[in-house]
What does this fold into?
Amino acid sequence: MQIIAAPSVPAIGSMAPDFTLSSTSGASVTLSSFRGQQHVLLAFFPFAFTRVCTAEVCAFGDDYGQFAEQGVAVLPISTDAVPSLKAFKEQSHTSVDLLSDFKRQASAAFGVLDTDGFFAKRAYVLIDKAGTVRWTHVEQSLGDRRDNAELLAEIARLQ
It folds into this structure.
């Protein structure tokens, strides 16, 4: 029996794996389309409609201007289907578009797929304009999340 190791989070300094995901705006979003344009913060979250995920997504909406001022596109990603994410976005009254990784390809490529529960772990990947991974963090507990102040501090190091 051959044991295949689960992919790990991309190493700092490596190129970020590319993906194209559907968003709550109705458009597809391709990670590589940001190259040369903006830094990107991928924010994988486990489940729509849960307390911590709601707080996190709402905080991204509240602080959207601060991320934009730093030249960063925030891409919250969940394995929930687009219709669920649209309802979640509406219920949470957030302006941030959410991406659906329903097929789990991006979560797997970034090494954050919980293979037992088949959902994305809460994780953050900061990618610079060149498409290079510059910072990562995977939460040990689903109930934990990084504060936007910490994320913005990591972003400030890119400048």
Q: What stands out?
A: The chain has a mean pLDDT of 86. The helical segments are 51-62, 64-69, 82-92, 105-109, 148-156.
